[in-house]
Design a protein that fits this description.
3% strand; 2 strands; mainly alpha; disordered N terminus; 2 domains
Length: 157
């Protein structure tokens, strides 16, 4: 490794070659957080590909935890690991949550689908139909994101 930029790039996932972690994966009980961290680290390293950071799903976590995205990103720029970031979140969260609240919120996130009769539902259905029109088993945002990630890297729905 010759430069700091190369070192930083190695610490971040290359989302042009692999998907970020599933929204179902948890750190400190929080669903969504590992995916958010993967995307933000990749964005910092310039390897985010077609993914988006600070998107609606990321904001679900940020609002629940009471964390500012730019402050979190500043911590990631220091190349902190997942455990260090969790400690930082626990210390800086405006919404100190109990383990029970985190568990309930994460379970809700794992089963949450689009609200019926909205533009968001239309978007959800459009993405799902572009992947496979017959997948009636895909009913939540994590289902759709996992399927989209799988298909995005060569899988067939």
């Amino acid at each position: 490794m010759n430069t700091q930029t190369e070192t930083e790039a190695l610490a971040a996932p290359n989302l042009t070659k692999q998907a970020p972690r599933s929204p179902r994966v948890r750190i400190g009980g929080y669903a969504v957080l590992p995916r958010l961290l993967d995307k933000a680290r990749a964005d910092i390293a310039g390897t985010i590909g077609e993914y988006h950071t600070n998107c609606m799903l990321d904001k679900e976590f940020l609002v629940f935890a009471g964390i500012d995205y730019q402050e979190l990103r500043s911590q990631l720029e220091l190349r902190k690991g997942d455990g260090e970031i969790l400690d930082w979140i626990d210390s800086n969260s405006k919404n100190q949550r109990t383990p029970w609240e985190i568990e309930q919120w994460s379970e809700y996130q794992n089963s949450r689908g689009p609200k019926p009769f909205t533009d968001v539902e239309d978007y959800y259905r459009g993405v799902l139909e572009s992947l496979n029109k017959s997948r009636a088993d895909v009913t939540s945002w994590p289902d759709l994101l996992d399927l989209d990630d799988y298909c995005g890297f060569g899988g067939v729905a």
